[in-house]
Design a protein that fits this description.
Largest sheet: 7 strands, mixed
CATH class: Alpha Beta
Structural class: alpha/beta
Number of domains: 1
Strand content: 15-25%
Oligomer: single chain
Number of strands: 9
Strand order of the largest sheet: 3-5-4-6-7-8-9
Helix content: 40-55%
CATH superfamily: Alpha/Beta hydrolase fold, catalytic domain
Number of helices: 14
CATH topology: Rossmann fold
Radius of gyration: 18 Å
Order of helices and strands: EEHHEEHEHHHEHEHHHHEHEHH
Distance between the termini: 45 Å
Amino acid sequence: MVGSLAFHIVVGGAAYPNIVTFYRHNLLVMELAGYSMATIFDRLHGSVTGSGERTLLLLHGFGTDQRAWEALRPWLSGFFTVLSYNIAGAGADGAETCLPQRHHHLYGHVDDFLEILAGIKQSAVTVLAHSTGVMIGLTAAAIRPDKVGRVLALQGLPRYLAAEDYPTKLAQTDLNEMYATIHKNHAAWANGFARKTLAIEEPLVLDVVLRHLLSMSPEMTIALMRAFFQADVRECQPRIRVPVHILHGKQDPLTPLAAVRAMKRQIAHATLDSIPVTGHLPHVTQPELLKPVLAGYLDIPFHEAAP
């Protein structure tokens, strides 16, 4: 929809001072037209479980799909109505759900999320987002504070690519090398990427993550990496007025603590907690350690609800 977070955006002859104003105007047009979330939610294999009064929307990150929440979902569904979907391009049929003109940039994925949000009757939806899903959640919180009540940001950042003023460990040269490796040997890249992000030796978990990564074609893998890892939503941070709870575990090569702290400083109502988990995928590798942390923020017990 729009390729950058410039301060002056011109789309279809109309000028907007920033990305938030642009989205708010176009979402109003969409809602006046009576848009329903059903089409896009179904196309992205949306799933609804539980029947709680409160709504929890799960956002997975790059390299996984909504199945990444399987270990936590039964517990969460005992207290919430839980919604999730596959981000376009993720999963075995990613080539069918990913529309090149829409989804080869982060804001196409933001569009999907906002359209789904617009179709949810309840306001103040809680968003639990992981990794690159955090970029979508933060942008949505800036644009729709009437729909997003708060964001739980698990091992995520508003930008992953290093810059002179931004202390991450991912350089453009690193991405270029990964793109080349994926073209040459997708399986070898997936094995190396999975081991690095997991940061623990668990063969069964490694196999699950590898299946997620290899369910995407090499071309789709690169397209999604470009859409997320070369995007930057830091401009949205000062505009966020809802609580953002940043959950950061140790030994995560993609989210260094200095960058996480920079994110907290830019969001007015942000908290930052160091959590007792290791690696980039704690909801997959260590869900039982993550439960008490999430329970505190969600105000629920960290055991299964009685049937």
